[in-house]
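Below is how a single chain appears once it has passed through the pipeline. First comes the sequence as given, then the structure the pipeline wrote out for it. We keep one example in the README because the format questions we get most often are answered faster by looking than by reading.
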Amino acid sequence: MAENITAGIGGQISINIDGRDLKVPFNMTILEAARANGIRIPTLCYHEDLCVSGSCRLCVVEIEGQRNLQASCAYPITQSIKVKTTSPRVRRARKNIIELLLGEHFGDCYTCKRNKNCELQSLAAEYGVTEYTFGKEEGPFFEILGDGPVVRDMNKCVRCYRCVRTCQTLQEVSALGKINRGDETYIGSFMDLPLLEGLCVACGQCINRCPTGALTEHDQTDEVWAAIDDPTKHVVIQTAPAPRAGIAEAFGIPAGSAVTKKMNSAIKMMGFDKVFDTNFTADLTIMEEGTELLLRLKAALVDGNKDVKLPQITSCSPGWVKFAEQVSPKLLDHISSCKSPQQMFGAVIKTYYAELAGIDPKDIVSVSLMPCTAKKFECERPEMCDSGYQDVDYALTSRELAKMIKEAGIDLMACPDSEFDDPVGLGSGAGIIFGATGGVMEAAIRTAYEIVTGREIPFENLEVKPVRGMDGIRSAELPITGAVEAWKFLEGATLKVMVAHGLANARKVLEQLAAGELSDYHFIEIMCCPGGCLGGGGQPIPTNPAIRKARAEAIYQEDRIMPIRKSHKNPVIDKIYKEFLTEGPCGHKSHKLLHTHYKKRGTQIV
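Resulting structure:
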């Protein structure tokens, strides 16, 4: 008893798991204690990113002195106990649970997108389930719904409710929920409306946490193969920074392995005519967005324009933009008018590049490789056609490109290294770090500080550590001293910035902004997905905090070895402003091609 009282105020409790004597913190769950000590307990509804559900019961364990088996994910340790994780009773219970799930799970594994990467399939193999002990109902029972980037096949749903918890608690969007009760429960949208007609922002985070093939992205690989095989089409692809830090996982390579140049070779072997780097337009975004911020500051501080909206908020993340359009339309003027790097690249490809290459834009098929399912929604937005054509024709996720590489019979890791193609294949290290939360902010600071002061930022190795990390909301201050003549009005000012990732945190920022609590901030970066783009809904499955951290380090490592690490030092950026966007950043032509507007989709909630 004394031990338990001590533990209750921060001490440790002695427990025994499978014959091993252990000491664990008070209130830690049995599952956490087991995993912390290298003891595996299988799970299905449990996910490290989500609140505990305890609904599948697959993680049951036997506790000495207790009649019933207990779900280890939801059992807090508050006293000394003896636990068995693999007793005959436990094994039988788990096998029965898997058999019951399979009895309601309709679908052919061979034709499922999650074949060989399905948690239910793996568990069935692990527990030797080779027949349908409880029978198998005939189906399908539900219509497959492909309404937007997220495809729903509820015939494969095991009612783990990971998707619901992801949507409702991790992202605080609540586009998905439980419909009906008991054995008639299914996952659906409000009034069974198409997802995009409701609150869904197409972030795809539900896909990344679904253990089966019930949720997948809208696959566009057939359309891209058709374009590649059409001799009349010139097919180009831009590759974002996050996929190159994650795609190797789809080939069994550990998280954190960047394969940029091998991926370039694989893409060329597949038949793409050109492989470009989205980092180029990430640099272009910094020039446009940074100039927009400085112009807003000048209008507010020098001209006394009270209508200027500060802080300015980034616009790179289409899931975040749609979220803001839905829940806080009155605050849309705070968002930068810049298109995302994906859309800027599409506009450049069908104008500047088309002129340089002497190709009719109608014959160019512009493809993007993105970590994000919301990018599919973004390139279909009707306003994204300022080039006279749809700026980006197809947005492929990291998973889709991995599938195409495998279909082509290419061994990714055996590919030689190759560079990006000219003339828009050069990006800076600042562009690469866009893939991690805080990366856009850091890239902007590297450029804006140097433009305003004529000096490099006062951080070792150009790494702005205060805006890095995985905390949901982070703030930093940067004093401005020694401002050059053009920006003398900023002398002595302190640039206040904020970074947020994940829509639950975005909602908090919007609430603070609406309440007037952020009036002294100047610039805010918001990314829709946990971890930023590297945790995007189109990245390889699975995802968890350790995987996202490894991907972030891969991105930062690529930045460290880049010869150019600031956007304004990219010579191709200088060239496009001299040859094409001749009025400079935020000029008339760049506004037409590289900037956009937003749509009020809802009433003010925040």
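Residues 1-6 have pLDDT under 50 and may be disordered.

See the next section for the split statistics.
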